[in-house]
Amino acid sequence: MTALTLSTSSAATLRADAVVIGVVKGDKGPVVAPGAEAVNKAFDGKLAVVLETLGASGGEGEVTKLPAPSGLKVPVVLAVGLGDNPAKGDGFGAETLRRAAGAAARALSGSKKGAFALPVEGPDDVAAVAEGALLGAYAFNTYRNNGSGKGEGNGKKKGAGDKGAPLAEVTLLGGKPRDKAFKAAAERAEALAAEVNRARDLVNTPSNDLTPKSFAAAAQAAAKEHGLKVEVLDEKALAKGGYGGLLGVGQGSDNPPRLVRIVHTHPKAEKTLALVGKGITYDSGGISLKPAGHNETMKCDMSGAAAVFAAVVAASKLGLEVNVTGWLALAENMPSGTATRPGDILRMYSGKTVEVLNTDAEGRLVLGDALTRASEDKPDAIVDVATLTGAMVLALGSRTFGIMSNDDAFRTSIHEIAEEAGEQSWPMPMPTELRKGMDSPVADIANMGERAGGGLVAGLFLKEFVGEGITWAHLDIAGPAFHEGSPFGYTPKGGTGSAVRTLVRLAERTAAGDLG
Prior knowledge:
Layout: E1 3-7, E2 18-26, E3 29-32, H1 37-42, H2 47-53, E4 63-67, E5 76-84, H3 94-107, E6 113-117, H4 123-136, E7 169-173, H5 180-204, H6 212-226, E8 229-233, H7 235-241, H8 244-250, E9 258-264, E10 272-283, H9 303-317, E11 323-333, E12 345-347, E13 353-355, H10 363-376, E14 381-386, H11 390-396, E15 401-405, H12 408-421, E16 425-427, E17 445-446, H13 454-463, E18 471-476, E19 482-483, E20 494-495, H14 500-511
Parallel strand pairs: 1-7, 2-5, 2-6, 6-7, 10-11, 10-14, 13-17, 14-18, 15-16
Antiparallel strand pairs: 2-3, 4-5, 8-9, 9-11, 12-13, 15-18, 19-20
Helix pairs in contact: 3-4, 4-5, 5-9, 6-9, 8-10, 9-14, 10-13, 12-14
């Protein structure tokens, strides 16, 4: 991953491939943001004029490169837009700094070192800039030809100087490397970015390489590295335990399902969180086959499990004083002569029977088993994460995840935490009248209900498998989990690592006793 250092050096004296400065929108054109004073001085105080001449406005995410004057030790100045100038006395918002740093890091792809001279007043600003830069510098090059005719696995690795390689080093100016608060902010940003990028890597890995078995193996390797407890139930153990949902979804594939339990514990912990992730490593829809145009990105249907896995590892890295148990419900949903058919009835781990009306509504089946099992440990709260429904994307768009819960206060807390973490979300209702649509004449419940409000119906289905008296929330990340458009801010094309930062912030707040 991209290296991060803090420095008190001046932007005028530090050697790097480029220095990054901020620009804001002023009433009469772009205005140079705090942190860039030394750079502006090298331009004889006329940097804003030069930028305006080049067409820069200071708009959020706008990137302008220009040659550095002789007074600087860098060859390039990169100006990134911060948007509107904050009111006097107000600083720049964390998300503004994250996105600006991310846009700059992307623009410096292939460079060895970037010096970031963005507005930094305290540890929170350091955290935001560091996080944005490290997330923006992400690149997934595992399968790309390196120019020698060989793939990454057979030739040399991509490195600095290769335009496809991420920025190798971020030096954050204005950071105080000997100050405990600044150092802690930088270390948290490094740990968090590493785990978001772990989730991105998993999401971007094609399904021929990422199967339930190999995903479980990745969790076992990380558990060994970070001192986590791990347990993997293979298809024989799942059959013995009666996990009908996981087995029913996975029975059409040559790659059998797995249920992974990965645990971070702390001796001083007073609370326990259970995180449950949907891990469909490829979703063809099964017998209810997805049409062309809807299955090309379905390697991303394990994004929820990737987020849960990464969050548990992050909790361990950060030494959080809370117990966090991650449940990865892993299966591949394929059509075959052994696949579950529409009309089949599955007996879930809870004992409930489910009439499968649509085999493409499979995520709720694997989650149902995992939620029941997670409930047996009596955690203080359960949060499940899933790319569950297209209906949620239609409701909220491609950048916002929906939050449902059996506790309104908990739902509100998660919404606030997501905003704080820099992830767009929105609280969604759980209308009780929609439950009737899932009534089945032959089973306890059907896996489909009314088409209108399909995202809410899915949440109501999941609620059926949560233990009595346990606080629970459901995050439907179907929109933001996989970005198909052009990169923006610190968000790349492809896997985004959606929900990782929210889950880690939830664990931190729980450890601090802020959630009751």
